[in-house]
Amino acid sequence: MNAIEIRGLTKSFRGMYALDDLNMTVPQGAIYGFIGENGSGKSTTEKCICGHLVPDKGKITLFGKPYTDAGVRARVGALIENAGCFPASSVYANLMMQAINLGLKDRAGEIGRVLKIVRMEDNAKLQFKKCSLGMKQRIGIAMALLGDPALLILDEPINGLDTDGMRLMREILVDITKNYGCTVLISSHILGELEKIATHYGIIRQGKMIREIAASEMDSRSQVYVSLKTGDMGLAFELLRSVGCKVQFAEEGLRVYDVEDTGSLAAYLMRSGQQIGEMKKHRIGLEEYYVSLMSGREAM
Amino acid sequence: MENAKTLQFEKPSFFTRLKGMLGVDFYRLFHTPLYFIFLAIAAIIPALVSMGAMGEGETAGMFTNAWQIIAADSPLYIISNMGEYANMNMVFIFGGIMVSIFIGHDYRSGYVKQLFTTHAKKEDYMISKTLVSAFSMVCMCFTYLIGGMIAGAATGLPFAINAGSFLCAILGKVIMSLGWASLYTFINIIFRRKFGISIALCFVLGTGIPVIGAAALVGNSVALNIFLYGSSVYACLSANFLSVLVCLACSLAWAVVYNVLGSVLLYRRDVY
Fold first, then answer.
1. Residues of chain A contacting B268 with CB distance shorter than 8 Å
2. Could you tell me which residues come within 8 angstroms of residue B50 by beta carbon, excluding any fewer than 6 positions away?
3. Distance CA A32, CA A10 (A)
4. Cβ atoms within 10 A of the Cβ of A88, count?
C-alpha cells in the first residue's frame, strides 16, 4: 500500500500556480526525499497533505483513504516551517498539549519517550523561546512523533543545523523508520544529507513532479567515472578514445566513464608516455542527478 | 518496503475528537496568565463603575440600587446615561479581547498547524474554541458578580431586589456568553493572525454600538433582542423566565449560525 498517493493536485495563489497537476507516490515505510528549488511547490504539497491548504483540484489519499479521513489524519505528524509551539510555554507543556490533543493515555510516558528519541530529556523544563534553532527543530520532530504516527511530514528539518545536529537528525529519522515503521516525507536542500537516508526521491520543478525514483534504482543506474589530469590532456583524450573509452573534457580535466579497473587505465596512459597528475574515481550522486534533471539533461 | 507494517486506522468519534481539542484549549487556558488577568479585570470593572456612583460630577448618583452595578433596571437599548450601560455586559467587551488574544496566539505561534494536521474535521476547532471562550466569559461573569457585590457594598446603596428577577438576569447573561463566544471565535477565524483587527472589531461589537445605533433609529423595540447585545440588555433586573428563554434562543441560534459559518470558512479557506 502507498502511504501517500497524489493525483492531479493543483493549487494556485491569486492566479499563480504553485502546484500544477502534481502526481506523487510515496510507498509505505519509505523515507521519501522531496527535492526542488525554492518556490517549486514542496511546502505547498506538504501543506495540502496536512489539510492546511485547500487544493483547487486533485486527489490526495493517505494509506488508501481520503486525506480528509479523521482516522488517518490523527496518525499524521508534521513539522512544517516551524515547530508550531507556544514560545512562552515550556518544552514539556507544548508536548503535553499535543499529547492531550491526540488523546494519548500515558501522556507523561509518551513525552518521555519522544524526548529520549530526540535527545532532549534534560531540556523539558526549558521555555521554548529559549531553545536554540537545532533544539527547536528537534522539539518539532518530537511533537510530530507523539502518538505513534504512521506518516511523518518534515519540511526542511535539517535547515540551520550544525554538522552534529544533522548527524543526530539523520540517526533519529533512520531510527523511527526502522523501529517504528513510520513513513517519512522529508524535503531538504541539503542533498548530501538526504542521500544518506532516503529510500525514494521525488523531484519537483515549478509545481510539477518531474521524476520519482527509488534510491536503489538510482544506485543501479548511477554511472561511475574517473576524473584525471595528465601532462597533455588533448593527447590523453585521443589515446583513450582510440581504445574505445567513453571520454569527455570537464572542469576538473578529463572524465572517463564506465571504468572498472583504474589501475589498467593508469598503466595504459603511462605506457603511452602520459604523466598522470591526478586521478580519482567518482559515482554520479543525487546532487549531480538533480542538477542534470534541472538543467534538462538527465545524467543517467 | 521491508519495514512496512499493517496499519489500522480507528475513526475517532465526534466526542473523542472534541475531547482532545477541548483538553488542549483548557490546558492552555489554565496554564497561561491571560485567563487569570481577565478574571481579575472582570472583578475590578465593577469597582471602577461604582466609583462613578460614589463620586461627584456628571456620573454621580447614576445608581440608586447596588445591584444596578450588575444589571440595568429595565431593558433600555437607547442609552441615556452610563448607569444604564455600565454593568455586567462589559464582561462581553473584555471577553472579546481575551478570545482574540487566545485564538490569535494559536495562529501566531503556528500551533494551529498541529491542530489542523491531526484534526481533519475543522468544525472541531470552531466548537472547541467557542466552548472554551464561553466558559471563560461565564467565569468572568461570576468574578464580575463578586466584584459587583463588594463594590455595591462599598457604595452604601441599598441591596433590595426581587431575587427571582435577579437570578433570571444573571442566568440570562451567563447564557449569552455562548453566543458572544461564538461571534468572537468567528471573527478571529476570519482575521486569524491579524488579531489587532479582531480585537478592534470585537470591541466595537461588544460595546453594542451597532444595536444602540439601530435603537436610535427604530426606538426601544423588543425586536432588537434578536441581536446578542439586545438579548444581553434584556437580561436586566426586571427579567423573568421569559427573558431567560429569549436569551437562550438568541444565544443558541447565533452560536449555531457562527459555528456553521466558521466551519464552512475553515473548510473553504487555507488555514494560514
1. 54
2. B63, B69, B148, B151, B152, B154, B155
3. 21
4. 14
The pLDDT value given to residue B2: 44
Could you identify the residue written with the cell 514560545? A87
- Put simply, whether A105 touches B (Cβ < 8 Å) is no
- Identify the residue among A90, A101, A110, A178 best suited for mutation to test binding to B, counting B beta carbons within 10 A and taking the highest: A101
DSSP single-letter state for residue A156: S
CB A24 within 8 A of CB A191: no
ipTM surpassing 0.85, yes or no? yes
Answer for the pair A221, A189: CB distance below 8 angstroms, yes or no: no
- The three grid cell numbers given for residue B115, joined into one nine-digit string: 491542530
CA-to-CA distance for A21 and A207, rounded, in angstroms?
8
* A151-155/A183-187 β-pairing: parallel
Question: Is the minimum CB–CB distance between A16 and chain B shorter than 8 Å?
Answer: no
CB distance B270–A72 less than 8 Å? no
Task: Walk me through the domains of chain A, giving residue ranges and CATH numbers.
Answer: 2-213 (3.40.50.300), 223-283 (3.30.70.100)
- Supply the pLDDT for residue A246: 86
Tens-digit pLDDT profile for residues A143-169:
999 988 999 999 988 876 778 878 888
Q: Which chain A residues contact residue B20 at CB under 8 A? A: 100-103
C-alpha cell at A69: 479521513
Per-residue pLDDT for chain B (272 aa), expressed as one digit of tens each?
Answer: 544 557 788 889 999 999 999 999 999 999 989 999 999 999 999 888 777 666 655 556 678 888 888 888 888 887 776 667 778 999 999 999 999 999 999 999 999 999 999 999 999 999 999 999 999 999 999 999 999 999 888 888 888 889 999 999 999 999 999 999 999 999 999 998 888 999 999 999 999 999 999 988 888 888 999 999 999 999 999 999 999 999 999 999 999 999 999 999 999 999 87
| Element holding A250 (H helix, E strand) | strand A246-250
Put simply, the answer to whether B3 touches A29 (Cβ < 8 Å) is yes
State how far the Cα of A30 lies from the Cα of B1, in Å rounded to an integer: 7
Q: Do B20 and A80 touch (CB under 8 A)?
A: no
Please check whether residue B189 is in contact with residue B262, taking contact to mean a CB–CB distance below 8 angstroms: yes
Backbone phi and psi for residue B170, each to the nearest 5 degrees, phi listed first: -65, -45
Q: Which three cell numbers stand for residue B75?
A: 431593558
The Cα–Cα gap between A121 and A91 comes to 10
Q: Is B206 helix (H, G, I), strand (E, B) or coil?
A: helix
- Dig out the grid coordinates for A213 from the structure: 525514483
User: Can you tell me which residue has the cell 589498467?
Assistant: A264
Residue written as grid cell 518556490 = A39
The model's pTM is 0.86
